[in-house]
Amino acid sequence: MTTLNEVLYTAHATSKGGRTGESRSDDGALNVKLSTPKALGGAGGEGTNPEQLFAAGYSACFIGALQLVASQQKVTLPTETSIDASVSIGPIEHGFGIAANLVVNIPGLDKTLAEKLVDDAHQVCPYSNATRNNIAVTLSVNV
Where would I find the beta strands (DSSP E) of the chain? Predict the structure, then answer.
């Protein structure tokens, strides 16, 4: 287990109703309706789901880590840099598990440099550190 040396920020959210409920942050900035996808036996609907929220959080966090390592290495990332994140859910031996796939798009950058930046970002990204050796995470780079 990793112990924080110092707490810089703590997010707070409350969820009610599980996959067919709602989630809200304590400051009201996040307020989402949840619905279970048809693929998981739900009705679908207008709400989001935990896998989509995880994909959004991981991809946003990973871009932040990518920006950090790029600035440390004096590399300017194109403004079009983006990450397509997929989070899958399925059965494992004792319950359910998830897997993540991040496709990092850094148009116009040298492929070798882009791959190095992504590898370095994967070492500092809090989501990557939280998931390392816990779930399958695949990274790929498009330039």
Answer: 13-16, 22-25, 31-33, 82-92, 95-105, 136-142
Residue listed under structure tokens 């050796």: 133
Overall pTM surpassing 0.85 (yes/no): yes
pLDDT of residue 101: 98
Q: What is the pLDDT of residues 77-127, one digit of tens each?
A: 999 999 999 999 999 999 999 999 999 999 999 999 999 999 999 999 999
With H, G, I as helix, E, B as strand and everything else as coil, classify residue 5.
coil
SS (H, E, C) 38-62: HHHCCCCCCCECHHHHHHHHHHHHH
104 touches 111 (CB < 8 A):
no
Which letter does DSSP use for residue 34 in this model?
Answer: B
Phi, psi for residue 26 in degrees, rounded to 5: -65, -25
Distance CA 102, CA 135 (A): 13
Residue 114 corresponds to which tokens in the numbers above?
């882009």
Express each pLDDT in 12-31 by its tens digit.
999 999 999 999 999 999 99
Helices 111-124/50-72 angle, 10° precision = 110
pLDDT of 35 higher than 90: yes
